[in-house]
Amino acid sequence: MADDKRLERIEDKIDDLSTHLSSIDQTLAGQHESLKHHVRRTDLLEAQVQPIMTHMAELKGVVRLFKFVSVIIAILEGLRHFFHNI
User: Fold this and answer.
1) d(CA 66, CA 8)
2) Mind listing the pLDDT tens digit for each residue in 18-47?
3) Concatenated DSSP letters for 43-61?
4) How far apart are the first and last CA of the chain?
5) From CA 9, how far away is CA 80, in angstroms rounded?
């Protein structure tokens, strides 16, 4: 009789664990779907940012060119001013 009660308690605990594991599986399935949604949104946002990054790279090139031309002009103007005052 005691063994039957003990066996029944063990079976109840196993059933509780099984129910809990099923709940965990459902939660994980929901989180997986949520993660897939966020990955899709991230991919879309990255696709939107890519043209901006390309444009920024082009602008950096233009700014470097502008700096280089400005330095050359400043050097030439300094030389012109130096030789003009001699």
Assistant:
1) 84
2) 999 999 999 999 999 999 999 999 999 999
3) HHHHHHHHHHHHHHHHHHH
4) 120
5) 100
